[in-house]
């Protein structure tokens, strides 16, 4: 079942226009819940476990740290956008 989330900006829950960030956040939330995404996360964990093989070299640590930092930073904003739209949908239906 597909939920009907408001797609407008903050303060415009019933707007029909969809911003590029809202579309991106919706697609990311949809994709991040898939099995393929989970398997990619497992692959990243396996890659992290390979540290001893590379003797935790400076290059290995830099790649791991940079990758996880960038992904975490971006996901925070995407998750916040999704939660904001969910909250707006809930408060909108509560008011009706």
Word description of this protein:
There is one protein chain. By secondary structure, the chain is an all-alpha fold. The chain has a domain at 59-96. The protein has helices at 20-32, 35-49, 58-95. It is elongated and about 60 Å long. It starts with 19 loop residues before the first helix and ends with a helix.
Q: pLDDT average, as an integer?
A: 76
The helix-and-strand class reads mainly alpha
Q: What's the number of extended β-strand segments?
A: 0
- Total number of helices: 3
What is the distance, rounded to the nearest whole angstrom, between the alpha carbons of the first and last residues? 22 Å
Percent range for β-strand residues: under 5%
Radius of gyration: 18 Å
> Which series of helices and strands comes N to C?
HHH
Tell me the major beta sheet: none
Query: Residue share in helices?
Result: 55-70%
Spans where pLDDT lies below 50 across 5 or more residues: 8-15
Shape: elongated
């Amino acid at each position: 079942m597909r939920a009907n989330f408001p797609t407008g900006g903050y303060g415009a829950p019933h707007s029909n226009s969809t911003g590029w960030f809202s579309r991106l956040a919706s697609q990311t939330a949809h994709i991040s819940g898939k099995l393929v995404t989970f398997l990619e996360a497992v692959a990243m964990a396996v890659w992290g476990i390979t540290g001893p093989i590379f003797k935790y070299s400076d290059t290995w640590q830099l790649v791991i740290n940079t990758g996880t930092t960038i992904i975490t930073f971006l996901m925070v904003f995407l998750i916040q956008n999704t939660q904001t739209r969910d909250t707006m949908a809930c408060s909108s239906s509560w008011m009706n």
